[in-house]
Design goal:
Order of helices and strands: HEEEEEEEEEHEHEHEEHEHHEEEEEEEEE
CATH architecture of one domain: 4-Layer Sandwich
Structural class: alpha+beta
Number of strands: 23
Strand content: 25-35%
Oligomer: single chain
CATH class of one domain: Alpha Beta
Helix content: 10-25%
Distance between the termini: 79 Å
Strand order of the largest sheet: 11-10-9-21-22-23
CATH superfamily of one domain: Metallo-dependent phosphatases
Length: 378
């Protein structure tokens, strides 16, 4: 083989390999954490890619990815929908042309879910939090997903910032290829950006919705969109879902971005339109983001502290964003065992058969606060 032919063939294989590389592999949960998921990855080619999913028994399922070329994304986003999965099972994923094997676990009836928000503006700290999350999942392998409360990046219309976030999120992937599924909601920095739906498989439909329920056995997470009107269609939908879930779920946990009981800013419209519904239907706890502080309110009900009917509001965004001073530290809802402070954090929600433990965890995996919940009578 002469040198020119060798160089030509080497260049061909190098280019083919580069264009065939799998980038930003991710698993998304939406409707049910035990039975369905979406596997999503980026590649430079739009043609369908062969993907093999293997269950714990060794049975293989063959898929062809659906590639799309979203506006503003300089590569193709590929998806496969995985349905009829078994609860508490491990699934291996092999993408054609990719040497690595990825895997994830569906949720059992008991285990852990992580929650947190606001990872924008500081890639170095975001990576540190992602590495802490990876170590936490390694320590507690019954951790099934991360619910992100929004504000992934500063400019939701910037592909370069989204690209950096996608690269940084890969730090949650374990050395043996375990992917931590993501459950995404919109923050104000995503606002109505098309990138959110393009990169996260359009959770619950179009840009003017993105509010939905994720079911984990007898626990219902209600993800709301504080970029839209808190009244109107979203409030009507929330009313219906709270009424339905009150009959079918032991636990009901709303989650959204702009807080009703803030640690820094003025209250969002959730205080007027959603809190009365939360109190009427006696939800168990509420997660909020946006403030860039750690907060745990006292149990509040109808503008007062109430240890019987009161609801705690936890947050408020500490997944790597630059932190703020807690300007509302003297607010009445932080009295008693409430607290608010300048601290990076994520939450670990551990669901047992008859109770829930929520631990507040910092970037060094130190547990610095906790809440225990018992089922409510509705």
């Amino acid at each position: 083989m002469n040198n020119k032919l060798y160089i030509l063939l080497f260049g061909f294989f190098f280019i083919s390999s580069a264009f065939g590389a799998v980038k930003y592999p991710m698993v998304l949960f939406e409707k049910d954490l035990s039975s369905s998921a979406v596997f999503i990855f980026h590649q430079d080619l739009s043609r369908p890619i062969d993907v093999v999913v293997t269950d714990e028994s060794g049975q293989k399922f063959n898929y062809k990815s659906k590639g799309k070329n979203p506006f503003g994304v300089p590569c193709c986003v590929h998806e496969i929908e995985l349905n009829n999965l078994q609860a508490g099972a491990k699934y291996k994923i092999n993408v054609s042309g990719e040497n690595r094997t990825f895997w994830f676990s569906t949720a059992k009836k008991t285990g852990r879910i992580l929650l947190g928000g606001d990872s924008r503006s500081d890639s170095k700290m975001r990576v540190k939090m992602n590495l802490a999350i990876k170590d936490y999942v390694k320590k507690y392998p019954d951790t099934y997903a991360l619910i992100h409360g929004g504000d992934y990046i500063k400019n939701g219309w910037s592909w370069s910032q989204w690209k950096c976030w996608l690269e940084d999120y890969q730090q949650t992937t374990s050395e043996d290829g375990r992917l931590l599924p993501l459950i995404p909601i919109r923050g104000n920095h995503e606002y109505l950006s098309f990138y959110f739906n393009s990169l996260f498989s359009r959770p619950s439909g179009g840009i003017y919705k993105n509010y939905y329920v994720s079911q984990w056995d007898d626990l219902s997470f209600i993800h709301l969109n504080t970029n839209l009107s808190h009244a109107g269609n979203q409030k009507d939908w929330l009313k219906r879902r709270l009424k339905e879930l009150g009959h079918t779920s032991k636990w009901i946990i709303p989650n959204y971005h702009r807080p009703a009981f803030p640690g820094v800013k003025k209250p969002g419209d959730a205080l007027r339109y959603w809190v009365p519904l939360f109190e009427k239907h006696q939800v168990d706890v509420v997660f909020e983001s946006d403030g860039h502080v750690y907060k745990k309110t006292a149990p509040v009900f109808k503008g007062k502290i109430d240890h019987q009917k009161g609801i705690r509001y936890l947050g408020e965004g500490g997944l790597g964003v630059p932190l703020r001073e807690p300007e509302k530290a003297s607010a009445w809802y932080f009295s008693g065992d409430g607290r608010v402070e300048k601290k990076y954090h994520f939450f670990s929600l551990e669901k047992q058969l008859d109770k829930i433990f929520i631990q507040s965890v910092d970037e060094n995996l130190k547990v610095f606060d906790s809440v225990q919940l018992q089922p409510r009578k509705r």
